[in-house]
Structure formats: structure tokens, C-alpha cells
Amino acid sequence: MTTPGDISNFSKNIILADKWVKWLDSVSRSDDKGLDPYRLDLQSCSVFIQSLLASAKTEIDAASKSSSKSSYAQVVVNNQSGNHNIVQKKTEFVCIVGPDDNDNSITDSNQTMSRLKGAITSKKISDRGLKILKQFPIKNKKVLLKCESKSHCKILEEEINKSKCGIKATVPTKRNPCLQILGVERDLEDDCIVRAIESQNEAVKDCLKLEGQFLKVTFSKLDRVGSKFVILEASPQIWQICTNLGNLFIGYKCCLVKNHVNVRHCFKCLRFGHIAKFCNNNPVCSKCNDGHSSKDCSVQITTTRCVNCIWTNQNRRENAELVNIDHSVFSKECPLYKSALEKTYNYYDYGY
């Protein structure tokens, strides 16, 4: 039988293990070239410890208090403050207004805005109870309107398109969010994983019964510690439940769940927003920042500098602050990577 003293000791060990995970992650992301042969092993070790931690935390929770079944509504509403995988940033809802395909008289975004205000007056906006948070010009003679909700964007789109005043509106479709699950048993097939999540996790099972809810595997890969990690696409409500839970029971294991965001980073020109397969830019070396492919570089570099941040400093606005360049172009601490990550969040519909 587990005693309060045992629980206290287990909790202390978990805190220590959490520190080890953070240390392993920081070392694996270090710019020290001498660590290159060991990075994958360090990352695999970190993943393995995290999966063990998830199981240990679940057992301690069960031993320290009687578990009460949470309803679907409770799981969605109650955020776990310690789960850093939950996206706290509210999803932005936008409506993009531009010239109609058959109207060539509009020459810039200011004219588009004038047409918009002529077609949809402030009185009509207030009569419909619409809330427009921001409005500003963007490229290709267009205007971007940020609204409080998706429904407000749809109403604007409908009103603008039926006005027939030489402009048209579109509401971009957001992607469904994705989950990354670590420590899944390697012998479980992809279709079995979804069935296991549904049958072993009641909150997920209850939600999947509702119309429009889904969960499907999009990618899986074996790791070096005898298990595999899985990427799943989910409906916003299922995503909320899984990230709030923090871990899911799958087969014999309790697996760690993370939010998964795919930031597109080109390995040819090193810019963000696209991948090498579709890149038309000249190659840039990630080691010496010269105009050749990284794999063809023979220069011995002792100090790594981020070419993207160098470009940013060279082309910054007057009086703008310089950004730090003393890091790898692939560093998670890169200011431009963080900016790209922030923008990528807005491509997904997290349901709030």
C-alpha cells in the first residue's frame, strides 16, 4: 500500500527528473559542435524520461486522492496551469477584402478601404452588432479586418460580397490543430492507436460521439528507446481535451501529449514560410552564411551566427533595436523563429 511518505518521496523524485529533462533539452539544443554526434541520443533520452514521468504522475494522482470522473465540459474548461503545451494565445479571426477579379480600377489598399466603407457603413456595422478589432492594409491592394469571432467574419464576408461594389471578401480557412504523443508502444498500428485512445480515455470517448468530432493519425515514427511518437490531427474540442489532460492511456502505457505546430523552415535558403522543395531562392550555408549549400561547406567555423537575424539587422527600420545574432539559424531561441511560431499559431483553429 502506498503511504503519504512514499508519495512525498515520489514527488521529490519527479521534481528532480523534471530538472533532468530540462537540462537534457538545453544541452541537445546547444550550439556546441562537439555535441552533434550525441544530439539524437540526448533527445531520445529526454523523450523516454518524459514518458516515464507521465506514468508516474498519473499513479501518484491516483494514490493521493480518490479519482472522480470528469465530465466532458469540465475537461474542456479546466486548464492545467503546468502544461506548457497548451496554446494560451486566443485564435485570431480575420476577413480579407480585395478588388474583385473583374474590377481593375482599384490601384491600392486605400481605395479598397474606401470602397469597403462605402458599401458597409458604420451604421450597418453597429446595427449588426459586429466587433472589428483592427483594420489595416496588406499587399496586393487588400485590407485585413480582425474580428472578435468567426461568425462576425462570416457576416462581413456575406455583406461585402452581396454589395457588388467592385470588392470581394474571403475568410481564410484555418487548419485543424495537431497533437504529438510520445512513448507509444511500437507494435501498435496507427488505426489501433486511435481506437485505444477512444476506448481507454472516457473524456475523449464522450466527445467523439458528438457530431463533427474526430481524431486521426497523420504521421508516426519509431524512436531509439523502443517506442514511437505519433502526430494526430484532431477537431478543436478533441485537441482541447487531450492537451488539458496532459497524457493519454494507450495500451499498456500512459503517454505524454503535446501540442504540435509545424513551422515551415527552408533548408535551402534558410528562410521561414516555405520548404526547400518549393524554394526558388539561392542556397545559403547554415555554417558560414555564404552562398552555397550547407552540405558543400568546408569552412571550419568556431562561432555560429544566424544569417536570418543578420539580414534583419541590416534591413531594420531606423531606430529599431538590433536582434541577437549569436545563435544557430536552427535555434529555438532565435527571435525570428519565435516570430514565425507565433504567426503559425494563427493558422490553426484551437476552438477559442
Automatic annotation (TrEMBL):
InterPro entries on file: Znf_CCHC (IPR001878), Znf_CCHC_sf (IPR036875)
GO molecular function: nucleic acid binding; zinc ion binding
Superkingdom: Eukaryota
Stretches assigned to the CCHC-type domain: 265-281, 284-299
SMART domains associated with the record: ZnF_C2HC (SM00343)
SUPFAM superfamilies membership: Retrovirus zinc finger-like domains
The protein's name in its UniProt record: Uncharacterized protein LOC113796958
Organism encoding this protein: Dermatophagoides pteronyssinus
Gene symbol of the encoding locus: LOC113796958
